[in-house]
Write a sequence for this structure.
């Protein structure tokens, strides 16, 4: 069961996620979003860009040292991990079979995907289990 029902992301942080994804094309990018949970909503207040160790256009693996530093930063500031983001440089923002199979967080975080199937990037969020995905509710705020 997810710890919150809606992920609220400030538009400026979402623009940073999309910029990161665009800068890494043709490779997948990856990173973390953190913040606080209140009244069933996850409020994003911080973004952590993480290097994709695989440097692949179809898969990602987060850099262990960068993950350690991001989690230390979160702990020091009392933040919770709310979402993992990555990109699909040539396809829609829909979880691939590989995304589902490599999910190690269960439904504890949203998986935010930036897709570049069209000229305008599209961002969608997903709750992943070991076998399937269902779309998460996103609230983008100015």
């Amino acid at each position: 069961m997810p710890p919150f029902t809606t992920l609220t992301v400030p538009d400026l942080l979402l623009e940073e996620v999309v910029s990161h994804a665009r800068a890494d094309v043709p490779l997948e990018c990856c990173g973390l979003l953190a913040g606080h949970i209140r009244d069933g909503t996850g409020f994003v207040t911080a973004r952590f860009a993480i290097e994709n160790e695989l440097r692949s256009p179809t898969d990602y693996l987060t850099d262990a040292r960068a993950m350690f530093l991001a989690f230390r930063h979160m702990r020091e500031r009392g933040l919770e991990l709310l979402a993992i983001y990555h990109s699909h440089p040539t396809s829609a923002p829909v979880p691939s079979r590989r995304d589902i199979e490599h999910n190690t967080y269960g439904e504890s975080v949203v998986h935010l995907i930036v897709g570049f199937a069209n000229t305008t990037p599209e961002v969608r969020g997903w709750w992943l289990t070991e076998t399937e995905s269902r779309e998460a509710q996103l609230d983008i705020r100015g």
